[in-house]
Amino acid sequence: MNALRVVLADDEAMVRAGLRLLIDTEDDLEVVGEAVDGEDAVRVVAATSPDVVLIDVRMPRLNGLDAAVRILSEAPDTRVVVLTTFDEDEVVDEALRRGVAGFLLKSSPPEDMLEAIRRASRGQGVLDPSVVPGVISRYAATPAALGRAAALDLLTPRETDVLRLVGRGRSNAEIAAELYLGETTVKTHLGRILDKLELRDRARAIAFAYDSGLISPGE
Protein backbone atom coordinates (compact mmCIF):
# COMPACT_ATOMS: atom_id res chain seq x y z
CA MET A 1 0.00 0.00 0.00
CA ASN A 2 1.32 3.43 -0.92
CA ALA A 3 1.94 5.80 1.95
CA LEU A 4 -0.38 8.79 2.33
CA ARG A 5 1.35 11.92 1.06
CA VAL A 6 1.32 14.87 3.48
CA VAL A 7 2.31 18.53 3.15
CA LEU A 8 3.05 20.62 6.25
CA ALA A 9 2.32 24.36 6.14
CA ASP A 10 3.40 26.40 9.16
CA ASP A 11 5.59 29.48 9.51
CA GLU A 12 7.31 28.04 12.60
CA ALA A 13 10.21 25.76 11.68
CA MET A 14 10.07 23.95 15.03
CA VAL A 15 6.40 23.06 14.51
CA ARG A 16 7.11 21.67 11.05
CA ALA A 17 10.08 19.71 12.37
CA GLY A 18 7.99 18.20 15.16
CA LEU A 19 5.19 17.21 12.81
CA ARG A 20 7.62 15.72 10.31
CA LEU A 21 9.30 13.67 13.03
CA LEU A 22 5.91 12.40 14.20
CA ILE A 23 4.59 11.57 10.73
CA ASP A 24 7.72 10.00 9.31
CA THR A 25 7.74 7.36 12.06
CA GLU A 26 4.54 5.91 10.54
CA ASP A 27 4.86 3.37 7.72
CA ASP A 28 1.66 4.51 6.02
CA LEU A 29 2.42 8.26 6.10
CA GLU A 30 5.03 10.33 4.27
CA VAL A 31 5.84 14.06 4.36
CA VAL A 32 6.38 15.15 0.76
CA GLY A 33 6.68 18.90 1.24
CA GLU A 34 6.80 21.84 3.63
CA ALA A 35 5.58 25.42 3.30
CA VAL A 36 6.44 28.51 5.34
CA ASP A 37 3.35 30.60 4.50
CA GLY A 38 0.03 30.41 2.68
CA GLU A 39 1.35 31.37 -0.74
CA ASP A 40 4.10 28.81 -0.36
CA ALA A 41 1.54 26.19 0.65
CA VAL A 42 -0.43 26.67 -2.58
CA ARG A 43 2.79 26.32 -4.59
CA VAL A 44 4.02 23.24 -2.72
CA VAL A 45 0.66 21.47 -3.02
CA ALA A 46 0.62 22.11 -6.78
CA ALA A 47 4.12 20.66 -7.06
CA THR A 48 3.65 17.57 -4.86
CA SER A 49 -0.05 16.56 -5.18
CA PRO A 50 -0.45 15.43 -1.56
CA ASP A 51 -3.36 13.49 -0.13
CA VAL A 52 -3.57 15.69 2.98
CA VAL A 53 -2.35 19.16 3.94
CA LEU A 54 -1.87 20.20 7.57
CA ILE A 55 -2.04 23.99 7.54
CA ASP A 56 -1.72 26.62 10.24
CA VAL A 57 -4.40 29.32 10.43
CA ARG A 58 -2.13 32.29 11.11
CA MET A 59 0.65 32.62 8.56
CA PRO A 60 2.26 35.54 6.68
CA ARG A 61 1.38 36.62 3.13
CA LEU A 62 -1.73 34.40 2.95
CA ASN A 63 -3.51 32.97 5.99
CA GLY A 64 -4.33 29.30 6.26
CA LEU A 65 -8.05 29.62 5.55
CA ASP A 66 -7.54 31.64 2.37
CA ALA A 67 -4.79 29.26 1.30
CA ALA A 68 -7.16 26.32 1.92
CA VAL A 69 -9.73 27.83 -0.45
CA ARG A 70 -7.13 28.13 -3.21
CA ILE A 71 -5.80 24.63 -2.58
CA LEU A 72 -9.27 23.09 -2.69
CA SER A 73 -10.07 25.02 -5.85
CA GLU A 74 -6.91 23.92 -7.65
CA ALA A 75 -6.61 20.42 -6.12
CA PRO A 76 -10.14 19.32 -5.11
CA ASP A 77 -9.04 15.77 -4.24
CA THR A 78 -6.63 17.08 -1.60
CA ARG A 79 -7.92 17.13 1.97
CA VAL A 80 -7.04 20.11 4.15
CA VAL A 81 -6.84 19.91 7.95
CA VAL A 82 -6.51 23.27 9.71
CA LEU A 83 -4.26 23.55 12.76
CA THR A 84 -4.29 26.31 15.34
CA THR A 85 -3.18 27.05 18.89
CA PHE A 86 -6.50 28.78 19.59
CA ASP A 87 -9.97 27.37 20.16
CA GLU A 88 -11.98 30.23 18.66
CA ASP A 89 -15.58 29.79 17.55
CA GLU A 90 -15.29 32.07 14.54
CA VAL A 91 -12.15 30.30 13.31
CA VAL A 92 -13.77 26.87 13.61
CA ASP A 93 -16.95 27.97 11.84
CA GLU A 94 -15.08 29.77 9.09
CA ALA A 95 -12.81 26.76 8.52
CA LEU A 96 -15.83 24.48 8.07
CA ARG A 97 -17.51 26.98 5.75
CA ARG A 98 -14.37 27.04 3.61
CA GLY A 99 -14.73 23.30 2.98
CA VAL A 100 -11.76 21.97 4.95
CA ALA A 101 -11.75 18.34 6.05
CA GLY A 102 -11.09 19.12 9.68
CA PHE A 103 -9.92 21.36 12.48
CA LEU A 104 -7.38 20.42 15.15
CA LEU A 105 -5.64 22.22 17.97
CA LYS A 106 -1.85 21.96 17.91
CA SER A 107 -2.08 20.73 21.50
CA SER A 108 -3.89 17.57 20.30
CA PRO A 109 -2.25 14.29 21.34
CA PRO A 110 0.12 12.88 18.69
CA GLU A 111 -2.09 9.84 18.11
CA ASP A 112 -5.06 12.14 17.39
CA MET A 113 -3.00 14.08 14.85
CA LEU A 114 -2.00 10.89 13.04
CA GLU A 115 -5.55 9.54 13.05
CA ALA A 116 -6.82 12.88 11.74
CA ILE A 117 -4.58 12.55 8.69
CA ARG A 118 -5.83 9.04 7.99
CA ARG A 119 -9.49 9.98 8.52
CA ALA A 120 -9.20 13.06 6.34
CA SER A 121 -7.66 11.01 3.53
CA ARG A 122 -10.74 8.74 3.62
CA GLY A 123 -13.06 11.73 3.29
CA GLN A 124 -14.13 11.65 6.93
CA GLY A 125 -14.50 14.90 8.83
CA VAL A 126 -12.10 15.63 11.68
CA LEU A 127 -12.95 17.93 14.58
CA ASP A 128 -10.88 18.36 17.71
CA PRO A 129 -12.93 16.91 20.59
CA SER A 130 -12.66 20.20 22.47
CA VAL A 131 -14.55 22.12 19.77
CA VAL A 132 -17.31 19.59 19.00
CA PRO A 133 -19.73 20.71 21.77
CA GLY A 134 -19.48 24.32 20.61
CA VAL A 135 -20.09 23.44 16.97
CA ILE A 136 -23.12 21.33 17.82
CA SER A 137 -24.61 23.91 20.18
CA ARG A 138 -24.23 26.71 17.63
CA TYR A 139 -25.92 24.71 14.91
CA ALA A 140 -28.60 23.50 17.30
CA ALA A 141 -29.37 27.09 18.31
CA THR A 142 -29.86 28.16 14.69
CA PRO A 143 -33.33 27.80 13.13
CA ALA A 144 -33.36 25.26 10.32
CA ALA A 145 -32.98 26.71 6.85
CA LEU A 146 -36.04 25.87 4.74
CA GLY A 147 -33.95 24.73 1.80
CA ARG A 148 -31.99 22.35 3.94
CA ALA A 149 -35.07 20.93 5.61
CA ALA A 150 -36.61 20.27 2.18
CA ALA A 151 -33.44 18.53 1.07
CA LEU A 152 -34.16 15.79 3.59
CA ASP A 153 -36.88 14.60 1.22
CA LEU A 154 -34.10 13.35 -1.05
CA LEU A 155 -33.19 10.70 1.51
CA THR A 156 -34.77 7.31 2.03
CA PRO A 157 -36.12 6.55 5.52
CA ARG A 158 -33.06 4.40 6.27
CA GLU A 159 -30.67 7.11 5.06
CA THR A 160 -32.50 9.57 7.30
CA ASP A 161 -31.99 7.23 10.26
CA VAL A 162 -28.28 7.00 9.47
CA LEU A 163 -27.92 10.78 9.13
CA ARG A 164 -29.70 11.32 12.44
CA LEU A 165 -27.24 9.04 14.22
CA VAL A 166 -24.26 10.59 12.41
CA GLY A 167 -25.49 13.94 13.68
CA ARG A 168 -25.53 12.57 17.21
CA GLY A 169 -21.86 11.69 16.88
CA ARG A 170 -22.22 7.92 16.50
CA SER A 171 -19.44 6.00 14.75
CA ASN A 172 -20.22 3.70 11.81
CA ALA A 173 -19.88 0.68 14.09
CA GLU A 174 -22.31 2.17 16.63
CA ILE A 175 -24.81 3.04 13.90
CA ALA A 176 -24.57 -0.50 12.51
CA ALA A 177 -25.30 -1.99 15.92
CA GLU A 178 -28.20 0.37 16.64
CA LEU A 179 -29.88 -0.14 13.26
CA TYR A 180 -29.01 -3.84 12.94
CA LEU A 181 -27.01 -3.26 9.77
CA GLY A 182 -23.60 -4.30 8.58
CA GLU A 183 -20.89 -1.66 8.94
CA THR A 184 -20.28 -1.80 5.17
CA THR A 185 -23.98 -1.06 4.61
CA VAL A 186 -23.73 1.97 6.89
CA LYS A 187 -20.75 3.25 4.90
CA THR A 188 -22.76 2.80 1.69
CA HIS A 189 -25.72 4.72 3.13
CA LEU A 190 -23.43 7.52 4.32
CA GLY A 191 -21.82 7.77 0.91
CA ARG A 192 -25.23 8.13 -0.72
CA ILE A 193 -26.27 10.73 1.85
CA LEU A 194 -23.18 12.83 1.12
CA ASP A 195 -23.80 12.54 -2.63
CA LYS A 196 -27.50 13.42 -2.45
CA LEU A 197 -27.00 16.39 -0.12
CA GLU A 198 -23.79 17.50 -1.87
CA LEU A 199 -21.82 17.38 1.36
CA ARG A 200 -18.08 16.94 1.34
CA ASP A 201 -17.61 14.79 4.43
CA ARG A 202 -18.90 13.60 7.79
CA ALA A 203 -18.25 16.92 9.55
CA ARG A 204 -20.60 18.69 7.16
CA ALA A 205 -23.14 15.89 7.54
CA ILE A 206 -23.20 16.50 11.30
CA ALA A 207 -23.69 20.23 10.72
CA PHE A 208 -26.44 19.51 8.18
CA ALA A 209 -28.32 17.28 10.60
CA TYR A 210 -28.67 20.22 13.00
CA ASP A 211 -29.02 22.97 10.42
CA SER A 212 -31.85 21.13 8.66
CA GLY A 213 -33.79 20.55 11.85
CA LEU A 214 -33.41 16.76 11.67
CA ILE A 215 -31.99 16.89 15.18
CA SER A 216 -33.65 19.25 17.63
CA PRO A 217 -31.78 21.28 20.26
CA GLY A 218 -31.29 19.23 23.40
CA GLU A 219 -31.47 15.83 21.70
From TrEMBL:
Top-level lineage group: Bacteria
CDD domains: LuxR_C_like (cd06170), REC_NarL-like (cd17535)
Boundaries of every Response regulatory domain copy: 5-121
Domain HTH luxR-type residues, every copy: 148-213
InterPro entries noted in UniProt: CheY-like_superfamily, NreC/VraR/RcsB-like_REC, Sig_transdc_resp-reg_C-effctor, Sig_transdc_resp-reg_receiver, Tscrpt_reg_LuxR_C, WalR-like
PROSITE patterns linked: HTH_LUXR_1, HTH_LUXR_2, RESPONSE_REGULATORY
Keywords: DNA-binding, Phosphoprotein, Transcription, Transcription regulation
Upper lineage: Bacteria, Bacillati, Actinomycetota, Actinomycetes, Propionibacteriales
SUPFAM superfamilies: C-terminal effector domain of the bipartite response regulators (SSF46894), CheY-like (SSF52172)
Keyword Transcription regulation included in the entry's annotation: yes
Record-given protein name: Response regulator transcription factor
Pfam family, any one: GerE
Positions of post-translational 4-aspartylphosphate modification: D56
